[in-house]
Amino acid sequence: MLTHLDSQGRANMVDVTEKAVTAREAIAEARVRMLPSTLRMIVDGQHPKGDVFAVARIAGIQAAKKTSDLIPLCHPLMLTSVKVELVAEDEQTVHITARCKLAGQTGVEMEALTAASVAALTLYDMCKAVDKGMVIEQVRLLEKTGGKSGHYKVQG
């Protein structure tokens, strides 16, 4: 059921007034593929713009907090935790994981997906001068807990 539509088919924000406050958590990921030389420069701390992972991590955290400003009809949430991790997965791939938590009446999937996406975009922005061919891929929800729909975990 598409709950963002009213009885006339018009977009509206879902009313969560009567929903129970529960602990909710979502984990999302993104990957950024790049030239091995670009990733080596980042990992070795040789990038002229500084610590690329630190800047991307902060961007992801800020983005999670601003999700309702970016995604229409998304509720503004009082997040209690946002963690963004970036690791070199192999010689040419950065794996980004974003985890968002709160106690609230609606889920945090969009916040986790936004955090992972913006961290990936920030990594691209910081490195585009040396590697315009980077590819952002596999942005997806990995897991979510809490709420009426219960636990979801990606298979495989």
UniProtKB/TrEMBL annotation:
It comes from the Bacteria. Residues 13-147 form the Molybdopterin cofactor biosynthesis C (MoaC) domain. It catalyses: (8S)-3',8-cyclo-7,8-dihydroguanosine 5'-triphosphate = cyclic pyranopterin phosphate + diphosphate. Its EC number is 4.6.1.17. One of its GO terms (biological process) is Mo-molybdopterin cofactor biosynthetic process. The keyword Transmembrane does not apply. Substrate binds at L73, C74, H75, M110, E111. One of its GO terms (molecular function) is cyclic pyranopterin monophosphate synthase activity. Belongs to the MoaC family. Homohexamer; trimer of dimers. Catalyzes the conversion of (8S)-3',8-cyclo-7,8-dihydroguanosine 5'-triphosphate to cyclic pyranopterin monophosphate (cPMP). This is Cyclic pyranopterin monophosphate synthase. It comes from Pseudomonas mosselii.
